[in-house]
């Protein structure tokens, strides 16, 4: 009997070792790899831009964090280098095998006059699954976009088992923006109108008491160093720090502009690494930048940097995380409306770091140096589900554009976003008198902060931005007014910025906002300031509110 047990021991030990070695591989999650090949374009004109857009759109629709990876375009193009002629099923299969893909997607688009036909196939290479195919004929390119979207959903459902309904990704045709296809409430918050299906939480909003100031800026962070967030409000020539407590905002500190010139931006982050977030208050006095950086000591806000020549912004920069960036102002006057951005700001946006007693350039070379982009009119981040970031920028007419990393424009919209009543006066009258008498005073309106975040945790970032309705209809260049506003979420499809959800319209001007944890419950909030009435001497006082929407982030789906 002892001999039998002794003989069995090596076998048992071997089985145990094999189980330990192979069990993780058996139950580990496998990320499926998809090769999306360029569509064959049969048309009388060059449609290479459309081919790139289809690639980006399909890649963004098929990407599924930790589950489906779309092979980078550059690797596909490198593997296809030298190929001539159509992409046959045999060539697609051979190419996909070279790329070690699990699936390959290929197709063609034929355009003749107004008639458009699309033929596409998604084939499995390593599993015995029937291919998913589509053949549709439409009139006009606008109708092709939703068909591509439907095809991606069909692939997601039939091949990857991704639980989406057609209505969850209903396409909104160009020109119908703001008319919801699905009139249901967005599950992020019932005050948002749903376009795309996301996770649900049935909470209402919170609002503060009324402030008799013009709130033009907001940021949130741990200013006191106690591990809890505070909210900082920019109120014209002053700023105040508040703590959310028992459903109200309790002011714990304030600072007033020494020369009574307006602050134009406020940002909060711990850049000097002392455990307390600094407050970066950007300001222009006449024609000189006089920004200030403050820290909370007890109940007093004390300047640690005074009259800085930097205009500040805290941004989440790809590859660097949350950093401080800055830009300087040019000396002298601004030539005119067309050149106001080029002539007002020194070229280049730089990463800044704390050194001794001041914030200085972290590198000699700028992070970004592109025409028509300045520190307050852009955001950078990955919108396409690939490693390459996109740049979202907003022009003086409040229209959004998307640029690639090299600064090439890949999209320009026609809707108006990001409008505010916050401005810089260039060529101020007080500064003129010696050779600048003929320069026209310009008002450069600073757009609202553009947020790039992944709110629903689907692995793809979205754009969060305000959309205020003008009551002056853009007739006047200098004076602006807004009678209502809403918050909007947009996603890049590879061809256009499609709306995900929007908040309900609120009377007034949505002047500033951020997505951070206001009430310190560990969950993010969409916090915004609502400017209801501007202050004017002698006959009316300003009126503002702070409004917060609780957001529930989509939980990662558990494997059964």
Entry keywords:
560 residues; mainly beta; six-stranded mixed β-sheet; six-stranded antiparallel β-sheet; 6 helices; 14% helix; 39% strand; elongated; disordered N terminus; disordered C terminus
Structure, explained:
- The chain is mostly beta strands.
- Helices cover 14% and strands 39% of the residues.
- It is built from six helices and 35 strands.
- Strands 1, 2, 3, 4, 5 and 6 form a six-stranded mixed sheet that branches. Strands 7, 28, 29, 30, 31 and 32 form a six-stranded antiparallel sheet that branches.
- A hairpin with an 8-residue loop joins strand 9 and strand 10 (230-235).
- Helix 2 packs parallel to helix 5 (144-158).
- The longest helix is centred in the first third of the chain and has 26 residues, at 2-27.
- Residues 1-27, 164-183, 196-203, 431-436 and 556-560 have low confidence and may be disordered.
Number of extended strands: 35
Major sheet size, sense and barrel closure:
6 strands, mixed
Strand content: 35-45%
Distance between the termini: 43 Å
Low-confidence region ranges: 1-27, 164-183, 196-203, 431-436, 556-560
Global shape? elongated
Number of helices: 6
Helix content: 10-25%
Rounded to the nearest angstrom, the radius of gyration is 27 Å
Mean pLDDT over the full residue set: 82
Secondary-structure-derived class? mainly beta
């Amino acid at each position: 009997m002892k001999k039998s047990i002794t003989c069995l021991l090596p076998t048992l030990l071997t089985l145990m070792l094999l189980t330990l070695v192979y069990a993780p591989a058996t139950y580990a999650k496998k990320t499926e790899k998809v090769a999306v090949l360029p569509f064959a374009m049969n048309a009388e004109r060059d449609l290479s831009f459309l081919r790139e857009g289809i690639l980006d759109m399909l890649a963004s629709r098929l990407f599924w964090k930790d589950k489906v990876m779309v092979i980078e375009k550059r690797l596909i193009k490198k593997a296809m280098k030298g190929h001539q002629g159509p992409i046959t099923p045999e060539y697609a299969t051979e190419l996909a095998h070279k790329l070690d893909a699990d699936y390959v997607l290929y197709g063609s688009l034929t355009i003749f006059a107004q008639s458009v036909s699309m033929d596409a196939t998604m084939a499995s290479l390593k599993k015995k699954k029937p291919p998913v195919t589509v053949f549709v004929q439409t009139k006009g390119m606008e109708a092709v976009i939703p068909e591509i979207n439907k095809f991606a959903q069909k692939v997601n459902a039939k091949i990857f088992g991704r639980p989406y309904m057609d209505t969850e990704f209903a396409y909104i045709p160009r020109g119908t923006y703001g008319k919801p296809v699905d009139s249901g409430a967005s599950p992020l918050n019932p005050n948002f109108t749903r376009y795309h299906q996301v996770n649900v939480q049935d909470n209402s909003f919170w609002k503060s008491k009324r402030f008799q100031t013009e709130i033009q800026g907001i940021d949130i962070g741990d200013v006191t160093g106690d591990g809890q967030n505070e909210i900082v409000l920019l109120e014209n020539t002053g700023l105040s720090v508040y703590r959310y407590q028992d459903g109200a905002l309790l002011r714990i500190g304030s600072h007033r502009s020494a020369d009574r010139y307006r602050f134009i931006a406020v940002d909060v982050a711990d850049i000097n690494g002392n455990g307390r977030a600094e407050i970066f208050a950007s300001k222009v006095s006449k024609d000189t930048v006089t920004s200030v950086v403050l820290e909370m000591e007890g109940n007093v806000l004390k300047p640690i940097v005074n009259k800085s020549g930097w205009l500040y912004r805290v941004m989440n920069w790809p590859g660097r995380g949350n950093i401080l960036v800055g830009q300087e102002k040019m000396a002298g006057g601004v030539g005119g409306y067309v050149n106001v951005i080029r002539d007002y700001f020194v070229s280049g946006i730089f990463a800044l770091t704390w050194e001794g007693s001041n914030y200085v350039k972290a590198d000699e070379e700028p992070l970004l140096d592109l025409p028509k982009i300045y520190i307050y009119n852009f955001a950078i981040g990955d919108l396409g589900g690939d490693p390459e970031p996109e740049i979202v920028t907003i022009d003086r007419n409040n229209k959004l554009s998307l640029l690639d990393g090299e600064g090439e424009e890949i999209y320009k919209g026609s809707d108006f976003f990001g409008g505010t009543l916050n401005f810089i006066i260039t060529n101020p009258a007080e500064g003129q008198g010696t050779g600048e008498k003929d320069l026209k005073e310009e008002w450069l309106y600073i757009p609202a902060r553009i947020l790039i975040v992944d709110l629903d945790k689907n692995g793809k970032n979205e754009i969060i931005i305000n959309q205020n309705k003008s009551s002056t209809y853009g007739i006047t260049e200098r004076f602006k007014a807004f009678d209502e506003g809403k918050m909007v979420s947009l996603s890049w499809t590879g061809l256009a910025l499609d709306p995900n959800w929007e908040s309900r319209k609120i009377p007034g001007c949505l002047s500033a906002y951020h997505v951070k944890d206001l009430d310190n419950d560990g969950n993010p909030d969409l916090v915004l300031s609502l400017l209801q009435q501007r202050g004017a001497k002698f006959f009316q006082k300003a009126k503002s509110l702070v409004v917060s929407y609780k957001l529930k982030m989509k939980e990662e789906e558990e494997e059964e």
